[in-house]
Amino acid sequence: MDRALSDYAMRLGDDSLILGQRLSEWCGHAPMLELDLSLANIGLDLVGQATHFLMLAGDADRLAFHRDVLDFKNCLLVEQPNGDFAQTIARQFLFSNWQELQLRELSGSANETLASIAAKAVKEVSYHARFANEWVVRLGDGTDESRARMVQALEWMWRFGDELFDVDAQLDPLIAERIAVDPRELRAEWEARVTKTLAQATLDVPVPRRGARGGRMGHHSEHLGHLLATMQFLPRAYPGTVW
Amino acid sequence: MNNDWPLWEVFVRAKHGLSHKHAGSVHAADARMALESARDTYTRRMEGVSLWVVPSAQIVASDPGEAAALFEPAADKVYRHPTFYVIPEHVKNI
Question: Can you tell me the ipTM of this complex?
Answer without folding.
Answer: 0.73
